[in-house]
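Quick one, probably user error.
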């Protein structure tokens, strides 16, 4: 090979691949992350992986498009909350270096408290258990206009990301106006069918409706636990500010804000929200003070709800309270971990916004403030 052979993609790789992490996506699916691109023919051999000494069995191994992640499918469920071990042999990198024999890595199966709910708010592009950029095996709940444009509709028994039915339901209190399909298709936080659409509210008249302040509640929650709520919304192709303030009311009240205008990567979060004594969290949308849209549109495209352990025997320390004096929910469950994977402003940094103006503001001064939602 000469120095002009710049097209050569693999140059003298003599280092064997290594496994970095093992993550149980649900009780029958383990994801292995390797430190380099693997040879697909060896990576996809189920026989090269052994979980917990062979029980449950590995019935499929699939290298994902990133070339470094292998998804193992098991023939039985792992025990929730328990550690597991994967032993790997004979898997090779692109230069056919073989992983060290009996390479072992461990992980922990999510416990029953690590319940995760994903809700896609929007129109007809519902999110199923299909391809997604972040995790292809998540199961979703879809709130479309059929329920979301009513003030008494219920989406019962939400399923977790591993498709376990729960006692948690979503009950509408005040309707959304309708669905908007103009969200981003470039986000990687959630599947395209979740980010491209949203349900919206408005204050000035739109679609013959005025002062639409959407409001709903999650019921069937555990009053003893804390919940991390992540809000996402995207509305592309606009030049104004369309910030929504999400208010979460349970044992206490907290708010978070997100500007949907041209948003791709940002989220808003309320961490450690404690439900009411009856197990409910009520979530309401209103335009934030910074929202200067002519209709004061508000949006919700995705809601992610992580149930977290919240030890009542460990009351929040004074220092934690002092850091977030305006956020009773976060302070009430200071043990709740942050969702460090996603960017966006933490809710505890956002001061409460003033109540929204329900009267029409001055006439839109620019044609760019279109009458389109
Ligand atoms: Ca290598
Ligand atoms: Ca959707
Ligand atoms: Ca959506």
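Nope, works fine. Designed sequence:
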């Amino acid at each position: 090979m000469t120095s002009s052979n710049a097209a050569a993609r693999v140059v003298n790789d003599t280092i064997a691949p290594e496994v970095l992490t093992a993550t149980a996506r649900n009780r029958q699916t383990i994801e292995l992350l390797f430190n380099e691109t693997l040879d697909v023919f060896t990576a996809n051999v189920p026989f090269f992986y052994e979980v917990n000494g062979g029980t449950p069995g590995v019935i499929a191994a699939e290298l994902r498009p990133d070339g470094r992640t292998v998804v193992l499918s098991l023939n039985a469920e792992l025990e929730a909350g328990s550690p597991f071990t994967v032993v790997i042999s004979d898997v090779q990198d692109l230069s056919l270096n073989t992983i060290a024999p009996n390479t072992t890595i461990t992980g922990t199966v999510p416990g029953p408290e690590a319940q995760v709910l994903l809700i896609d708010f929007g129109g007809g592009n519902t999110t199923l258990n299909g391809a997604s950029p972040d995790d292809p095996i998540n199961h979703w709940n879809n709130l479309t206009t059929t329920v979301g444009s009513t003030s008494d509709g219920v989406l019962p028994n939400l399923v977790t990301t591993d498709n376990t039915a729960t006692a948690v339901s979503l009950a509408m209190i005040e309707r959304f106006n309708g669905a908007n399909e103009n969200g981003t298709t470039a986000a990687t936080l959630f599947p395209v069918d979740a980010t491209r659409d949203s349900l919206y509210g408005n204050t000035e008249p739109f679609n013959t409706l005025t002062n639409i302040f959407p409001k709903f509640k999650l019921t069937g929650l555990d009053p003893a636990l804390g919940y991390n709520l992540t809000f996402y919304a995207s509305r592309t192709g606009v030049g104004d500010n369309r910030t929504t303030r999400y208010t979460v009311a349970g044992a206490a009240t907290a708010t978070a804000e997100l500007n949907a205008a041209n948003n791709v990567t940002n989220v808003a979060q309320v961490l450690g929200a404690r439900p009411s004594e009856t197990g409910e969290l009520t979530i309401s949308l209103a335009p934030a003070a910074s929202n200067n849209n002519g209709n004061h549109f508000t949006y919700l495209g995705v809601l992610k709800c992580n149930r977290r352990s919240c030890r009542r025997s460990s009351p929040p320390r004074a220092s934690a309270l002092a850091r977030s004096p305006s956020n009773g929910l976060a302070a009430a469950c200071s043990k709740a971990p942050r969702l460090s994977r996603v960017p966006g402003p933490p809710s505890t940094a956002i001061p409460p916004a003033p109540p929204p103006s329900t009267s029409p503001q001055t006439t839109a001064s620019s044609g760019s403030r279109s009458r389109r939602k």
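The radius of gyration is 23 Å.
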